[in-house]
Amino acid sequence: MSDQENLVADPAMLTLARDSRGWTQSDLADQMSRVVGTRITQGYVSRAEAGRIPVRGERVHLFAAALRFTAEMLCRDADTAGAGVGLVHHRKRASLGAPALRRIHATLALTRFQVEAVTQAAALRRGSAFRHIEVNDFDTPADAAEAVREEWNVPAGPVDDLVALLEGAGALVVVRDLGTTELDAVSQWPSGRAPLILLNSTAPADRTRFSLAHELGHLVMHREPGEGRVQETQADRFASEFLMPHEVILPELKPGIDVARLIDLKARWGVSMAALIRRAMDLGVISEWQYRTLMVELSALGYRTNEPTTIRRETPRHLSQAVTRLEEQLHLSPTETAHLAGLGREEFHEIYLCASSPSGHKDVPDPSVR
Predict the structure, then answer these.
(1) Residue 65, SS3?
(2) Whole-structure pTM over 0.70, yes or no?
(3) CA-angle at 163, arms to 364 and 233, nearest 5°
(4) Do residues 45 and 25 touch, judged by C-beta distance below 8 A?
(5) 55, 81, 107 — which closes off a domain?
(6) What is the pLDDT of residues 40-67, one digit of tens each?
(7) Residue 96 DSSP class
(8) Is residue 186 in a domain?
(9) N or C: which terminus of the chain has fewer CB atoms within 10 Å of its end residue's CB?
């Protein structure tokens, strides 16, 4: 019997793959029917995903063709491949529904599998500067942010490239379209693995930087599920201090802020005007009434949805460096590299390389990679 005939799909991986496409079981059955030319029922897909019937050989290839993943990926054990969901943090709006959230969780799980598969094959080993920091009534989120900046040797003032800083500290950062405007970022740090942060490519760059710092706060402070509103507030406070440390930004806010001044500060600090107004209120520079007045003014100018001044969009480099090593030093073809991630060549390039470097995936060496 050939290796292809020995293939047996993992039921959990079938479900993750389908959820990552945003499909129902009926959607998948319809797609499989189009591929094979005969009717496949939703009931068959349901039984396969529940593990009540084994999916072997040619049936694995049928699922793979319909889902647009490799057959080998569908046969990986979801847990041992690191594709289990576990504790997940989000920066999302309350209106995000359960189906969209399932898709995002599945995308997060498969992204971890894909990125780890490629980077491990390239043998790019990195240390980790991440550690958990407990917060309480005495040790605040702002204290945690200050501690991380000190431990990571972040210079005083604005963080120049937050993505590069996190990658240098050992995180996996991926920017991709999450298929919704209701969520900006999602993160996860399973025991024994690298922290992973997934950023929505459709979010504005100034909001993305705050979302990235917000997720860093979750990863550092929150090891266990907790009261959602409390943890979200803590992550926001961590992000504010991490991106706008009070000792440096306070003198720049004290002379007073108006729209023109906010535009200048946005360009310097790389955060939204709305975030700067909130920071000014939290630091006691403006009153709550002044805060509301400024926010109304932003709304009247149309700046709540489209702020002036474009912030440079930061891009991850770690995965593109792994791809360069695989293709140039280990002589894998682009198709072979993509198959390590369980994807076809075009989709792999679109997801992981187009966003990483506008001119392709040739990047300067990263000194944090050994």
Answers:
(1) helix
(2) yes
(3) 175
(4) yes
(5) 81
(6) 999 999 999 999 999 999 999 999 999 9
(7) -
(8) yes
(9) N
